[in-house]
Specification:
Four Helix Bundle (Hemerythrin (Met), subunit A), about 0% strand
């Protein structure tokens, strides 16, 4: 069953609110990253490899958070484009409807529940140790 107009408006509101929140977080995090100096991440001047490793880890975590938020912002923008283009709520794999409950929980979803489950099983890769 296709989304009713009221449901689509509700999802669009959720997407816009989330987008505004993520955009504000990104702006704050970028400003913070510009202000922080490498030694400040370690809590003191970097004097040994332990301090340097701590600073590297904190820097990597900040970068990972920025990347994650940027990816979510792009997904939200794509969802808004689908809403505007009237393709929102249609599964990219089977062409069926994506349920309102699924879209309420995950407004950027591009697959129905069944196709998403098949996709995850098909492309699942167990975690591999990374160094």
């Amino acid at each position: 069953m296709a989304l009713r107009k009221k449901q689509k408006l509700e999802i669009e509101r959720i997407i816009k609110e989330r987008r505004a929140k993520i955009a504000a977080e990104l702006q704050h995090d970028v400003e913070k990253a510009r202000e922080e100096q490498y030694p400040e991440l370690a809590g003191a001047p970097v004097t040994d490899t332990g301090d340097q490793a701590s600073a590297d880890l904190l820097s990597d975590l900040d970068n990972a958070e920025l990347s994650r938020d940027l990816l979510e912002l792009r997904e939200l923008d794509a969802a808004l484009a689908r809403v505007a283009g009237r393709k929102y709520g249609t599964c990219v794999d089977c062409g069926g409807d994506i349920g309102f409950e699924r879209l309420s929980a995950s407004p950027t979803a591009v697959r129905c529940f069944h196709c998403q489950r098949v996709h995850e099983k098909t492309f699942f890769h167990p975690s591999e140790p990374k160094l």
